[in-house]
Design brief:
alpha+beta; single chain; globular; 18% helix; 221 residues; 3 helices; 9-stranded mixed sheet
Length: 221
């Protein structure tokens, strides 16, 4: 499954990073169709835990999300020193660093449309070159910041939204897109039944072995 390492917060961590889009599936404006507010077609994933049948694919169980870890990749845990918990878990591949996050959402969907608009605006404000395109589940955002290429995808399901982002060198952008999509496609989401406000991040918990490894590293300084 890779090496479990600790990762400190990086610049732009909340927005993530990602790979540049293909020229034939992008457009340079912010045009959104009515269908972008609907639930994504996810017949082949990602899946809600209640609808998922075990497929034998190795995943790291993070509580709210169960994320596949490709062969040869590493898992890095980003801690939150102030809150004392986990801020994010990243899967580091040859093509770039992937982060998958789940959020509480309306039953009717549409959260990714709102979030993607805000995200694109924030990236532009940070000086990124932003392109909005259409991918497997609808809107995708690509951005270039310096030498780093970012790609964001989002999937709306009843009561949850899944967001994935990959950050890597521009030279790996073409391959990074499919690596990100495949990890998002194979991710399982466990929203739980508790009511919570829309946009609330679903809690990440670490497997016991990983938590013990990080605790040992912290004791060693």
């Amino acid at each position: 499954m890779g090496i479990f390492g600790r990762k400190r917060r990086t610049e732009g961590g909340s927005a993530g990073r990602h790979a540049a889009p293909e020229a034939d599936d992008t457009f340079e404006d912010e045009t959104y169709d009515d269908e972008d507010g609907e639930l994504s077609d996810v017949s082949d994933g990602p899946f809600d835990v209640a609808d998922f049948d075990d497929d034998g694919i190795p995943r790291i169980d993070l509580g709210s999300v169960k994320v596949p870890v490709p062969d040869g990749s590493q898992v890095q845990v980003e801690m939150d020193p102030e809150a004392g918990g986990v801020r994010a878990v990243h899967v580091v591949t040859e093509q770039g660093q992937i982060t998958v996050s789940a959020y509480a959402a309306p039953r009717s969907g549409g959260l990714w449309r709102e979030v993607s608009t805000e995200l694109a605006d924030q990236l532009r404000a940070d000086g990124a070159k932003v392109t909005i395109g259409r991918g497997v589940w609808g809107l995708e955002i690509s951005a270039i910041i310096g030498d780093v290429a970012l790609r964001f995808v989002g999937v709306d399901r009843p009561r949850w939204m899944l967001r994935g982002v990959i950050a890597g060198p521009q030279s790996e952008a073409a391959g990074a897109v499919e690596v990100l999509r495949e990890i998002v496609r194979r991710t399982i989401v466990d929203r739980g039944d508790a009511p919570m406000p829309v946009r609330t991040p679903l809690t990440i918990t670490l497997p016991e072995a990983v938590a013990e490894h990080i605790a040992a590293q912290q004791q060693q300084g």
